[in-house]
Amino acid sequence: MSVGTIVWLSSELMFFAALFAMYFTVRSVVPQLWETEPALFNMPFSVTNTAILVLSSVTCQYGVFAAERYQRSRTGSLLQINRWGMREWYVLTYLMGAFFVSGQAFEYAELVHEGLTISSSPYGSVFYLATGFHGLHVTAGLLAFLLVIGRSFAARRFGHQEATSAVVTSYYWHFVDVVWIGLFFIIYILR
């Protein structure tokens, strides 16, 4: 299961490499758009949204540590985060990922209001395609978290198979986060 996931993520890496290539190709053809269009971004909001997604990798990894200990759920109060199990960490990770996707939707609405749409310019096209496909991948990761969390409730005993599912889901989540860091740097920071 782990090896198959890594091979599949390699193909996903090629998909995102093509999106990066598209972005740089369009940028080299119409560089003047990069002087005006990025000014529409609400950078404090985008940085905050990015920080939430990146921090969700930390909470996801704490969930992995709990899964590797075969700790399905918390052993103390909900306020004692040092006693949380995989389920609590993955629910928090899910909420952070859902916040990120909601933040992207909010950002899209603001940019459309400002006149930046997928059809308004080549810049809009590459921006929405690159970030939109990433958003779809985050949404798929959220569904994977729901499956793993649901499986933790359904399993009579939280064992190796359940822990492996949690670990494999984390591979995907970390991959999506790393891709976003690259996209964020290229789209929002690099001028």
Automatic annotation (TrEMBL):
Q: Which top-level group of life is the source organism from?
A: Bacteria
One record GO biological process: aerobic electron transport chain
What is the reaction catalyzed?
4 Fe(II)-[cytochrome c] + O2 + 8 H(+)(in) = 4 Fe(III)-[cytochrome c] + 2 H2O + 4 H(+)(out)
What is the protein name for this chain?
cytochrome-c oxidase
Q: What is the lineage of its organism?
A: Bacteria, Bacillati, Actinomycetota, Actinomycetes, Kineosporiales
Any Pfam family hit: COX3
Q: What protein family does this chain belong to?
A: Belongs to the cytochrome c oxidase subunit 3 family.
List the InterPro entries. Answer: Cyt_c/ubiquinol_Oxase_su3, Cyt_c_oxidase-like_su3, Cyt_c_oxidase_su3-like_sf, Cyt_c_oxidase_su3_a-hlx
Q: Where is the Heme-copper oxidase subunit III family profile domain?
A: 1-191
Q: Which UniProt keywords apply?
A: Cell membrane, Membrane, Translocase, Transmembrane, Transmembrane helix
Which Enzyme Commission numbers does its entry carry? 7.1.1.9
What topology does the record note for this protein and the membrane? Multi-pass membrane protein
GO cellular component annotations, sorted alphabetically? Answer: plasma membrane
